[in-house]
Amino acid sequence: MAENQTEYVYFEGNYVPFDDAKISIKTHSFLYGTSIFEGIRGYYVPEKKSVSIFRMREHYDRIIANGKVCHLTPSQSAEELEQITKDLIQKNGWEKDTYIRPTIYKSGINITPRLDHNVTEICIWTQPLGEYLALDKGLNICVSSWRRLADNVIPPRAKAAGAYMNSALIVTDARAMGFDDAVVLTESGHVSEGSAMNLFLVKNGKLVTPATTENILEGITRDSIITIAKNELGLETEERVVDRTELYTADEAFFTGTGAQVSPITQFDNRPVGDGNIGPIAKKLQDLYFQVVKNKLPQYSHWCTEVALEPAKA
Ligand SMILES: Cc1ncc(COP(=O)(O)O)c(C=O)c1O
Questions:
Q1: Is 220's C-beta closer than 6 angstroms to any atom of ligand 1?
Q2: Which residue of 91, 132, 156, 202 has the fewest CB atoms within a 10 Å radius of its CB?
Q3: Does 139-298 carry CATH code 3.20.10.10?
Q4: Quick one: which of 151, 147, 144, 145 has its CA closest to 215?
């Protein structure tokens, strides 16, 4: 996108300039956090002048499923939301890795917290995005003193905006103490996930990750890594309850997420993970992940939606 070119967003049924997409201070979702969202990444592929959107369909299927939990059902189908996203990528034309943020929200101004008493709308915006967490330094992670929200409190699975106050407290306090981020435990003291990413450990040549019953977001990157590890490296993943002390005895560790991608961890609570260096399995999975998301491995091209930034020449 050229400098001074209009940045378009999708707002309540129309493509409008970013500056025109405004909501009232009485909006229900602003007052109560009653919205659900997705974070999707598109990777710029310079040789094709295209953006490869990673597992877009799974993100829209997830937000539509979460809408059932939270009474936030959009009027568009997953196919329609995919098309809107492709249009936005083309309209904005950023020759950069791009973050895509759809939000389904209660847009009415009825002040009761009821979810069935307010209009539902959707907006989607995009912006260039680089690294969210360091990819090659090795992260120093603490165990947060906050606990993860439980499924019967505000379901983390639903990716509800209000639940991210929990994430905000976790990451803010971790940073204030000099850590890169934190792992959070469930009320029963087992490992859940990071502030906005899933966690993997490597133990005795296997991957270990907290089960979906441990109040995690069921990450699309998590699922991708489980699949890539099995297909490309022959590594099985144990999805199970993980004790805190398993963090300190792991051979390797890394976070996964649309933002975090594959971010290796080299310390938990100032104890070295393995020998304190980025582990070989984490590194291999990170390399494979970047090939997959940039649509370089044909066996995973069904996960990539390529959007050409310029129409093909006749
Ligand atoms: C709390 C939380 N856990 C895990 C993840 C990773 O999920 P995904 O891989 O679908 O982006 C996210 C989102 O990035 C998240 O917000």
A1: yes
A2: 91
A3: yes
A4: 151
Token code pair at residue 147: 């606990």
d(CA 206, CA 63): 31
Confirm whether 203 is a catalytic residue: no
In this structure, how many other beta carbons lie within 10 angstroms of the beta carbon of residue 205?
Answer: 11
CA distance 53 to 294: 9
Take residue 157 and report the two structure tokens written for it: 């699975």
Mean pLDDT, 10 residues at a time, over the chain (314 residues)? 79 96 96 97 96 98 97 96 97 95 96 90 94 89 98 96 97 98 98 98 97 98 98 98 98 97 98 97 98 97 95 58
209 lines ligand 1 (CB under 6 A): no
Domain boundaries, the chain: 8-128, 139-298
Phi, psi (rounded to 5 degrees) for 88: -65, -40
Q: Is 92 left (phi over 0), alpha (psi -120 to 50) or beta?
A: alpha
Per the document, the length of the chain is 314
pLDDT attached to residue 130 = 81
| Residue 285 in tokens | 């999975």
| The pLDDT of residue 289 | 98
Pairing outcome for strands 139-147 and 181-185:
parallel
Cα 198 to averaged position of ligand 1 atoms, centre (Å): 6
Task: Calculate how far, in angstroms, residue 219's C-alpha sits from the geometric centre of ligand 1.
Answer: 5
Phi, psi of 95 (to 5 degrees): -90, 60
> Is 39 a pocket residue for ligand 1 (Cβ < 6 Å)?
yes
The enclosing H or E element of 79 equals helix 78-92
Residue range 8-128 in CATH 3.30.470.10: yes
pTM for the model: 0.96
